[in-house]
Amino acid sequence: MKINAVGFATISKKGDILDVYYPEINFNGSETDIKNSKDISSSKKLIELNWNQEDLESPVKDVCSAYLKLHLISYKFVKPNSVNLDGLFSALPNVAWTNQGPVSTDEIDEKLLDSKLNNSNLYIRSLDKFPCLTDYIIPKNVRVADTSRVRLGAYLGSGTTVMHEGFVNFNAGTLGAAMIEGRISAGVIVGNNSDLGGGCSTMGTLSGGNNIKISIGENCLLGANSGLGIPLGDNCTVEAGLYITAGTKIEQFDKNGLLKGICKGSDLAGCSNLVFIRHSLDGKVMAKFNSSSIELNSELHSND
After folding, report:
1. Do 134 and 150 touch, CB atoms closer than 8 A?
2. Which residue among the candidates 31, 165, 181, 239 is catalytic per the annotation?
3. pLDDT tens profile 129-154
């Protein structure tokens, strides 16, 4: 495997690299659309990296390698969880992301003062290690209602729609058409033709001790304000407001509606054709055979 990338870095006054933009990447013969990027401003630092498979499998060692791996995911050259991102947070600096580009947090006070004195327009959007996706890459055939809620390193499949309250973290995303009105946490993958309802949440692996990679199969629905702490297979539904974790006690029923027994959520990890609901009187969580399948509105996901 051969990866050749050309980009340019923003440098602070102290000489630290704040970010790297890679408009030109050749990944095993597949190329980005942007070319001739070597003609750049003298205020930027030219970055050229030549990688192989070993570099993808190695931990992140600096800002340049961190940004290339995030670009590779968002350009959809590689899928989430397929490259080594160990050391990512240590490598990335905390940056003031502004309408005038990234600014070192050590220099933002001076920049802000200058903008006030000279009536220049400086808007600080966030203080974070990660920028938003669309500051670097404009994904094709998707809609994103609020671009600040999708980080660089997100993987958005063709036909995906991310509504205003939807969120997609780095190293996470959708593998096809999907409606995202909830949260896709880091490491979470959503299959084709699935719908994450308003306010729903998927459990990531960055904090809280959870080490299970959450995935959602095809034709799945997470109801509004529901939550998911186990991976789902295809054709599954989680009732609105219901949070399923690995330790949730669940009454499991067979295709004929007969009770099979009580299990934990982790016992059903990766299973398909299930609908998770609560008993309306006693609140017990039940997993029943799901005989129906959701279908996304094709007009909403024809994002040409």
Report:
1. yes
2. 181
3. 999 999 999 999 999 999 999 999 99
